[in-house]
Each structure stands twice: as structure tokens, then as C-alpha cells.
Specification:
About 30% of the residues lie in helices and about 15% in strands. It is of the alpha/beta class. The strands form three sheets. The chain has a ten-stranded mixed sheet, with helices on both faces. The chain has a four-stranded antiparallel sheet with strand order 13-14-15-16, covered by helices on one side. Helix 5 runs parallel beside helix 9. The chain is globular, with a radius of gyration of 23 Å.
């Protein structure tokens, strides 16, 4: 039984599992329910969106959402890995509550999700692109999802009727399917929630051949902590996601396709390249054959080799971002052309952040800032005068908040079991006194790819406390983010921080109890249960 969790912005449509009715906002000037377009990429770093950070790339279309809406400057995830992050977003619950702990888990699609509630309350729902939850989507009137991580070229999609291959580049194809549904398949008499989930810029960062020459003449600044030695941070030292080491694969990741270069993931590149047609392959070879010649001629080693790998990684990653931003522009242009902008909420985010060489890394998983943070920008219809129209929102939000927020925007009931909080008051420009001042985080996937140890922790506006735990580690880390934003100096057990440390332990325990995360033996011991 779904119960209303809070007062709603709009008059509720109906009980979540009851008969659907029309959605009527309280604002008497408006007569139509809000449409919702939720666009999410995979592994898009905050550092590579120009409205957040203009060092690397210009993203005019994501910035266009910002200029016409709001940007969240303190947006975080609950578990920085793809499948679990998506489950948190759909259910509004932490991983231990939705049971999607790792990418190896199968998502229980019988549980309550926000698309199901919208569907039961008169909304059409559709999803195109990455799903990555193993089970089939439920709560959607129309869906086509990528197989697993998906392929960049000629991607294979799973549909209710079976598998189908769509010719083209994945980011273009997902957008094509989404726009086709908007134009020709939806019922125009009903509100809709359209979820557009891109594969890009997930590893191995294969750019569209139309963008293949971009950034080739650019040298990117090296992060100041690229050659981090991880002093006082054993979990960071034990990871296997280093750009300098073989974890960044010469073939799969760096596209060095040569018989003399045999790597662990060489066959992955071979498989991916088979999906390019002859014209695409010709363009691909033109660029990457010259990269191979350059690499061989340099005979690099040590720090010079690590820096060369970093530059190649950045170029390919950013080429994928260029296509992503272009396709977001296609969606915005379609909505504008069809006079839909003023009745549609547009959300852009990523399933987590990503390392652009900080600490010498690629990938995500850690509670450190680059992967814990995620971009979140929202365009708000001007006609809804109760919303703030533009600007930064600085309060803490987390991806468990997306489900209750979307439900409140739609005027649908919010289940009590959802642990997130609707941030509609923040969209309205309010500053609720009771809004959260700390964040809880958890990561479970070990042993696994990249060898990031299990951990959980708490972050306040200034400090962060993390516990790494398991059969081979039991270690605490504490950071003063004002003095050490790069998280290089673990100050746990430093006498001058004893009071702060005690306060953070108390806050961590409070959040674990609030979110009922005490089922694992390690956490029971920590809580004294």
C-alpha cells in the first residue's frame, strides 16, 4: 500500500495503484500537467561540463539548460557505480533497501519505482538506452534498452519483442528513438515521462567518427595530484584503476590496434571495431593509425608514458562528450520547435561522477569527491511562476531524491518507503531549515574490477569521514575539505581534529540508523548492535 509521504505541490492524481485521472496543478494559471524528460549519461564528470568547470570543453546545450533553469552545485550519488546508482534513482532508496548492491546483482523489478507510480497516475512512460539492471524494465509503456553496457556503434537493443540492432552511433540512436516516440508514438492527450539513458561517455570512450578529429591538437593540463603516492590511504593505494598502469588498457582504452600489442582487453577492441562500417572504419584508421605510429616512435616510459596515456584518454572521453551535448541540443530544439518547452521539466544528470586523472585515475566507485559528485541541471517551464527560473542551488541533494521530486512535480503520491527527499522546495527558491546537512554513502562491489574496497561514510559541508572495511582492510579516513579539497591528507586520529572526528562518528551512526543500514555484521559491530 502506497501512502502519501508529504504534502504535494499539485493536487494528487489518484492513489498510486488506483485508477488514473488527469493531473491538475494548484496554480490556477496552468491547466496542463507537466511533462518530464529525464536525460542521464553514464560516467559524465562534473569537471567536463563548462557551466561547472570550463577547463576542458564547452558544452553549450547542457549549459543552455542551466541558463534557462537551475544548476545544483552540491549534487551527489548514494553508490558510485552504474547499476546500483540507477536502482537508487528509480526507487528513491539506498542500495541496501532496494537490494541492488553491485553490478552483479539483478534488480528486483517488482518493487515500487517512480515510473510505475507515474504510469498508474495517468502518465505515459518510456525509456530508451542504457538500463544495466539485468531484469526487464517495468512501469514503462514503451522501452528499448541496450544489452548490458551497450556498444558505441550499431548497438543491440532488447525490446519486448526481442533483440534488434540499430545502425549508427549509440548516442545518436538513443536520441533518434526518443524523438521518434515523442513525434509519432505517444498519446498527445496524456502527459509523459520520457527517460533518455545514454551509454556515453562510458569506457572505452569510442567517439563518433564525425567527431574523431576533435582535440587532437590540444594538450590538457595534468591534475596536480596525478602522481599521487597515496600516503596514509591504503585503500586508495590498493585500487586498480590507474592510468599509468596496465589497468588502462593499451588496446581497448587507448585504441592501439597492433598485432605486437597484446593486452587483457585486446579482444574487446576487436569486437567493437567489427561494428563499424567501411566508411567509419576508414575514418577510424586514419586517426588511430597515426596515433599508433606516434606512440611507437616515442618509445615512452615512466612518467612520460603515463602523461601520454592521460592525454589520449582525455581526447577520446571529450569527443564522446561533444556528441552527447550535441544530442541534448537535438532534444531541446525539438521541444522548442513543437512548443513543448513551457510544459516540460528537463533534467540532465549522470549516474555518477568520474576521475579525469585526479589521483592518477579513471573510473569511479570511491567516496572521494570526483566520483561522489554528479552533475544535475534542471530546466523549469517559465509559465510555472512558483518555480525559480535560474541560478545555482547549493543545498545537498542526492540521487535518492530524484524519485520523490519527480513524483511531487507530477502531483503523484510519494511512498513512505522512499528514503530520498523531494527537492521541489529548493526549485521554488526556498531554504528549508530542516534540509539535510550531511550525506550518507555506501559502496559494496569488492572483490571486483578495479579492486576498490567496500566502504561507507558521511560528508558534511566541510568534513568527510570514510570507513573502508572487509577481510583485508579496516581503515578510517577523515578529510577537511576546506583545507584539503583534493583529499590528499588523511587526518584521522590527528589530535587537533578529535572533536570533529567524534562529531562525525555520531553523525554517521545517526544516518545509518535513519536509513536502517545495519544488516551487515561489520555495521552491527560499529553501531554496537
Amino acid at each position: 500500500m502506497i501512502r502519501e509521504k508529504r504534502l504535494l505541490l499539485f493536487v494528487p492524481l489518484a492513489s498510486a495503484l488506483g485508477a488514473a485521472t488527469s493531473c491538475v496543478p494548484n496554480d490556477s494559471e496552468n491547466h496542463k500537467p507537466l511533462n518530464i524528460i529525464y536525460i542521464m549519461s553514464d560516467d559524465h564528470s562534473v569537471q567536463t561540463i563548462s557551466s561547472y568547470d570550463n577547463r576542458f570543453i564547452n558544452t553549450p546545450n547542457i549549459d543552455r539548460i542551466v541558463s534557462e533553469g537551475v544548476k545544483f552545485t552540491n549534487s551527489f550519488v548514494a553508490n558510485s557505480i552504474s547499476g546500483p546508482s540507477r536502482a537508487c534513482m528509480l526507487t528513491g532508496k539506498f542500495s541496501h533497501k532496494n537490494s541492488m548492491l553491485t553490478n552483479l546483482t539483478r534488480f528486483d523489478s517488482t518493487q515500487v519505482t517512480f515510473p510505475k507510480i507515474l504510469q498508474e497516475n495517468g502518465y505515459q512512460t518510456a525509456i530508451f538506452g542504457k538500463w544495466h539492471l539485468k531484469s526487464e524494465p517495468s512501469g514503462f509503456d514503451r522501452w528499448e534498452i541496450l544489452v548490458g553496457q551497450g556498444q558505441y556503434f550499431d548497438p543491440i537493443f532488447i525490446t519486448p519483442q526481442g533483440r534488434v540492432t540499430h545502425k549508427g552511433y549509440s548516442t545518436d540512436v538513443v536520441t533518434d528513438l526518443s524523438l521518434e516516440w515523442l513525434e509519432n508514438e505517444r498519446d498527445r492527450d496524456k502527459p509523459f515521462c520520457l527517460i533518455i539513458h545514454h551509454k556515453a561517455p562510458h569506457r572505452n570512450w569510442m567517439p563518433n567518427t564525425t567527431d574523431i578529429d576533435l582535440f587532437e591538437d590540444v594538450t590538457f593540463p595534468l591534475p596536480h595530484n596525478f602522481f599521487d603516492e597515496y600516503e596514509g590511504r591504503p585503500a586508495a593505494a590498493a585500487q586498480e584503476m590507474s592510468i599509468a598502469k596496465d589497468e588502462m588498457d593499451y588496446a581497448f582504452d587507448l585504441k592501439l590496434n597492433d598485432p605486437d600489442i597484446q593486452t587483457r582487453l585486446k579482444e574487446n577492441l576487436t569486437f567493437a571495431l567489427r561494428r563499424l562500417d567501411s566508411t567509419q572504419r576508414k575514418e577510424w584508421n586514419r586517426v588511430y593509425d597515426s596515433v599508433l605510429v606516434d606512440f611507437k616512435s616515442r618509445n615512452l616510459s615512466g612518467r612520460e608514458l603515463a602523461e601520454w596515456k592521460y592525454q589520449r584518454y582525455m581526447k577520446d572521453y571529450l569527443k564522446c562528450i561533444k556528441s552527447l551535448d550535441d544530442n541534448i541540443g537535438r532534444v531541446l530544439d525539438y521541444l522548442k520547435k513543437n512548443n513543448m518547452l513551457e510544459n516540460t521539466i528537463i533534467v540532465y544528470t549522470s549516474d555518477q561522477g568520474f576521475y579525469m586523472g585526479e589521483h592518477g585515475w579513471f573510473d569511479k566507485r570511491f567516496m572521494y569527491e570526483e566520483s561522489f559528485r554528479t552533475p544535475l541541471v534542471i530546466r523549469l517551464p517559465k509559465e510555472y511562476k512558483q518555480f525559480r527560473k535560474r541560478g545555482d542551488i547549493n543545498q545537498f541533494v542526492q540521487n535518492i531524491d530524484y524519485a520523490p521530486t519527480i513524483l511531487e512535480l507530477a502531483g503523484a503520491p510519494i511512498p513512505e518507503e522512499m528514503q530520498g527527499e523531494s527537492f521541489v522546495p529548493l526549485l521554488k527558491g526556498k531554504n528549508p531549515k530542516e534540509w539535510r546537512t550531511s550525506l550518507y554513502y555506501q559502496y559494496f562491489e569488492y572483490p571486483a574490477e578495479h579492486a576498490v574496497r567496500r566502504h561507507y561514510g558521511v560528508r558534511t559541508h566541510r568534513y568527510k569521514l570514510i570507513r573502508f572495511y572487509g577481510h583485508d582492510i579496516n581503515n578510517w579516513e577523515l578529510y577537511d575539505l576546506d583545507k584539503d579539497p583534493a583529499e590528499m591528507n588523511n587526518i584521522y586520529n590527528k589530535p587537533e581534529y578529535s572533536k570533529v572526528q567524534s562529531e562525525l562518528h555520531a553523525e554517521l551512526k545517526k544516518l545509518m540508523i535513519k536509513y536502517e543500514d545495519f544488516e551487515e555484521e561489520d555495521k552491527k559491530i560499529y553501531l554496537g548492535l
